[in-house]
Structure prediction request, 245 residues.
Amino acid sequence: MHVRTLQVRALATAAGLATSGRKDSQGICFLGKVKFSEFVKEHLGEWPGPLVEQESGEVVGVHSGYWFYTVGQRGGVKLPGGPWYVTAKDMTQNVVYVSRSYYDADKRRDAFVCGPFNWLSELRPQRHRPLFVKVRHGPNMAHCHLHLGPQQAILSMVTDVLGSPAAAGSTADGATSTPLIPQWQQQGFSSSLSTAEAVSLQDQDLHGMVVLSENDQGLAAGQYAVFYQDGVCLGSAQMLGTVFR
Prediction:
């Protein structure tokens, strides 16, 4: 059931919750007036490392620690000649990759790998029926095609189609993803497993390749994708890597 903000506030008021009249916020509620950067610095400290331009591989600046940055963010990248966007993070080497062309109209960013899945019930995506995905906070969803399979099969499929990795996107563990070639959507990714096939796989091994019906420049590894069909929330999975062409 979809409940709107005004309905939630009405329920909170009826229940006598002290927060029923608090203004909307997308921040971290428990921080209060403390800035996020100050909170992170207090608990994780600082670890200076290089800011590297994604396209050239050149060091263009220094950062205070990869944990201060989120893939896709614009604010806080204090470099001249911007705007600069965070495109990837190498959490082992403490490298933050940045680019001035992350939001480029010529780049088609409409696909990603995700997993493992957290299903809310026995329901699974049904073939030949519209499937929608939500990749960020808010009411907007995108129509998508989902191919489900064991983790290794999905990753091998990507490798077979796309070839060796190239520095074009980002993954949740800090690695870079691969440019998406036009033949990719012709390799069978537009279908999903049947319900019986999906249920037979162990949840922890089930991964997916998702192709959106529209471009989304804001896709970023580490976010969660939530899937809906026939108005029902089926479940979610973490985005492990974005792919674009």
